[in-house]
Write a structure and sequence with these properties.
Blueprint lengths: L20 H14 L5 H10 L3 H11 L9 H12 L5 H9 L9 H12 L8 H11 L4 H8 L10 H45 L26 H4 L44 H4 L6
Helix pairs in contact: 6-7, 7-9, 8-9
């Protein structure tokens, strides 16, 4: 329900499927205080108009044989509280509380808020502050932060959940800063290593005096990538184990190719179209350009 003219704040419609009645009741009380609503009749009217249709039907059923309008504000509030806030087992809630641990990516502040929320449902009474502090420290789930908190004397009255929070936040901040520094150092070292490797690689690659420099080898159809080591089997389809094969610098005097000997050339019996000779390699004639 939106606030009317001259009213402070707003009261949202209470839907039991999406809202907690305890929170709704607390906000409704603060709304009455802020707008100085003291009349019980006005409070009842605002309450009834702040309920969803589903919740209003439920309230009518709870009031049978009477109607909600015949009840006073306090009676209606008690009916709703008893229905939506049944008595829970403190042992069940305390089991959840004592077994709780800080989860991954949950900040220290978020963990403290969760501890307090769970503790509020356990009915600890005067022991509340002590047990909240203990679970906050024990369940912090970070060894370095826990080591720092364990240095404190738990028997001292000034070691509270608030002082433990300050220590945990300080340690958490220091750990985060250290992670950032280490990450920056790793990235810087990796960049320097990469640059050094590229310099050495290019120096080796473009050195024509290096006889083992594979980047100066001839590109062929069989060897389709630059810089790869050419194997005899890849150069000669007639490769046979135990037979010698020409290296990259041996040039066939018949056809000018590099992957076979002249005696193995497919064109050795062919007639040259320029000079009319057959098998120029046997005559020792130079290869025609």
């Amino acid at each position: 329900m939106a606030s009317g003219s001259g009213l402070l704040g707003t009261i949202n419609t209470f839907d039991p499927n999406n809202s907690d009645f305890t929170v709704f009741s607390e906000r409704l009380s603060q709304f009455f205080i802020a707008n100085k609503v003291n009349d019980k009749g006005q409070k009842k009217a605002i309450l009834l108009n702040s309920l969803s249709e589903q919740c209003y039907v439920l309230l009518r059923n709870l009031c049978v044989p009477d109607l909600p309008n015949s009840k006073n504000y306090d009676d209606l509030l008690i009916l709703l509280e008893n229905h939506f806030s049944p008595v829970k087992s403190f042992f069940a809630q305390r089991m959840k509380f004592y077994s709780a641990r800080r989860v991954l990516n949950e900040s220290v502040v978020e963990w403290k808020a969760r501890v307090k929320n769970m503790a509020s449902k356990c009915g600890f009474g005067s022991e509340l502050q002590i047990v909240m502090r203990d679970i906050f420290v024990i369940g912090i789930n970070e060894e370095k932060i826990m080591d720092r908190l364990f240095e404190e004397d738990a028997s001292k009255a000034d070691v509270t959940i608030q002082t433990s929070l300050k220590l945990a936040l300080s340690k958490e901040s220091a750990l985060n800063e250290r992670t950032i520094r280490e990450s920056f150092a790793i990235n810087s070292n990796a960049k320097e290593i990469k640059q050094e490797v590229e310099v050495n690689f290019n120096r080796y690659r473009y050195n024509p005096k290096n006889p083992s420099n594979s980047f100066h080898k001839t590109y062929t159809k069989e060897n389709s990538s630059w810089g790869a080591t050419v194997r005899p089997k890849e150069q000669n389809k007639n490769y046979r184990q135990g037979v010698s094969h020409p290296n990259q610098s041996s040039k066939c005097t018949v056809c000018g190719r590099f992957n076979h000997f002249p005696k193995e050339c497919s064109y050795k019996e062919c007639i040259c179209h320029k000079c009319g000779d057959v098998d120029v390699s046997t005559s020792g004639a130079p290869l025609h350009n």
